[in-house]
Amino acid sequence: MTAVPLVIDTDTAQDDCVALLAGLLDPAADLRAITMVAGNVGFDQQVRNAHLTLAAAGRLGEVPIHLGCRRPLVREWVSAENVHGDGSGGLALAGDEPGVSEEHAVDALIRLAADAPGELQIVCIGPLTNIATALVKDPDFVRNVGSLWIMGGSNNGRGNITAAAEYNFYVDPEAAKAVFSAGFTITVVPWDPLTLRDAVFGRERLAQIAEVDTPLARFFTRIVSATLAFDESVGIPGSTHPDSLTAAVLLHPELVLAAGDYAVDIETGSELTRGYSAMSWGVHGLTPNARVIERIDSDAFFAYISGMLACSITPSREIAGLERA
Predict the structure, then answer these.
(1) What pLDDT is attached to residue 21?
(2) Mean pLDDT of all residues in the chain?
């Protein structure tokens, strides 16, 4: 089987880390770069979380990290630190902070897509600022990219930062609108209903992972702890995993049980519904611009994640807080 060439564009916190693990550890993945975009937590903390994840996977220093846009296109950055804390459950990498690439994330995305026209898959699990900037900077970028795999929006459902909007689209709605109108081949993993129904790990499943007690399982348990507490406080019965699901459905399309072609557009003009993703399902005379995942095999997805975390991998460097309890 030929590995999928991919980049993960991320605002690394909690489940973004699990998505990175999939890109780093799944034999089906050829992870060529990690690109950072302003999102969940402070930008420098996101970078630390990405290095931490590389170390947990035993691959620190093997995949370049490129720093991208530190704020949305036209708006002020909105934090999700109330949900994620520091995004890593208080874990910290021992020793000096590792270095990052001098090449800007936008330039790296443009270069990597041009190096493999029509092949590169980009897993977009943060706001779409880097992608929108790349398509403005390079008119060939849209044609060179194979596909975008976007975690964002809700399929005519509720949001998670406002009643109307999912966080990634809310933070930079102008970027999301530009990306969906640019002509990319796009697959969307939405928050509601997909994530809330099919990608929530309840306490029983989380306990099964904790019992494995590998360094990766301990890493997972720590990084999801803050978000789990928040999710339960707002009525979600477990930790949510839309970002790792986005990577998983790219690498393992058999996880997808139902999907449809939709015309997706993003609201930018209203403060009440800022970032709302209007997903038309084919009865409004609009031309589809994205495939939206509607249902996945929840049990198989959990088996995929738990199997990955059962791998006994020695971290590249000591991680403070990862010791056995």
Answers:
(1) 98
(2) 96
